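Q: Okay, next protein. This is MFS general substrate transporter from Rhizodiscina lignyota. I've checked the sequence twice, so it should be correct. Can you predict the 3D structure?
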Amino acid sequence: RGQAFHSLKSEIGFGFAMAMTQVLAEFMISGFGVILPSIAAELRSGSSISPMWPTSILSLVLSALVLPFARLSDIYGGYPFFMVGLLFLIAFTGAAGFTTTEAQLDVFRAMQGIAIAAFEPASFSLIGNAYKPGRRRNIFFGIYGACAPLGFYLGILVGGVALHYAHWGWYFWTASLLAAITAIAAYLSVPYAAWSERHEDLKMDWSGSITLAAGLIMVAYALAAASHTAGGWANPVILAPFLVGLALFVLAIVLEAKVVTCPLLPGEFFRPKGIKPMVVACLFFFGCFGVFLFYSTFYMQQVMNASPLQTVLYFTPMAVGGLIISVVSGSIIHIVPAMWLLLFSGLAWILAPLFIAVAPNTNYFPLVFLSMIFGTLGSDLTYLIFTLFCTDIQPVRYQGLAGALCSVVVNVSIAFSLCLGDMVQS
């Protein structure tokens, strides 16, 4: 067991709590796509924003706030933010089950994004302090990465079962219960040595946090609403936030590079060899991931006329394959060069959406089935390699920031790819 743990039982509890953060993050994204049509019909929304907006808003808020929370985790330790994030998720997922208006839904989804932004980088900080680089840590991250497809599948499963047998509110209430179990496990198992590490020489960058967050949300809003607003880009309601958002992005870059003394993304963070091209590559990989996962769900329900429970069955190979691939790759990544695995995952991401695009309208076998297999090869290998690469090349003081960068890349890619996908569809 890891040196920070006094017993195998405590290490298992710690592993469960950390892995559940991945499950919960994916759960809150995937299952919502299944229940969204029912929620929209019940609330009778007349919003001009994209139908994908309630889905995208969680990823946007998460992307906007995860870097500030990562800095706070590095300064004060990850444990307080890990627990507060879980408590937020318990409260606002429970409340979301009682939603009666679209405004309430948007607020609850945004608050869920804040919760995940708090505990995701905190979990990386806790893991980085509990395990030294090596085979055991690789296996741990393999299991951690496997929980992403597991959480995605579990979200679809719970959403489908809730719609079929009860009410969509049970999707949110189940998430609240899972978050409560995770909080209890973390409280009982996180070793003091894993969260007592603090770096109070770091300072909080409030100017960078505010400008980056505001710019990201404004640009994404404009992209999401442009195709669903009269006049499109000529409408000031769309053009104004887009231009202001771009200006804030430029201001944030200037502040981070020239003004602030302790930027959110310090220059030394990007000095290790290969990190810049890795980030760019993963932006495209996970953009494909977002479009593939959400639009394959719509394809199954609207083109193949699959019921919610049939959709669950169709995604089963992705969940099972994800568990196997992540555990196996976590054991062999110290033997097989990561570049070869990354190239293989890139090939998988070419084939996964391609098979959906050319599949006959009503047949699951063989092309949609193969698409699920290649989808899990692409997503799990990419995420495992990306997280290991970012955490292994950074010192302990930047472990929370490394986890935040991984989360930002994934969620920014998903949010913007869905906005662009909706524009193409419209």
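A: Here is a summary of the prediction. The CA atoms of residues 63 and 407 lie 7 Å apart. The chain has two domains: 8-197+264-425, 206-263.
Q: Noted. On to the next one.
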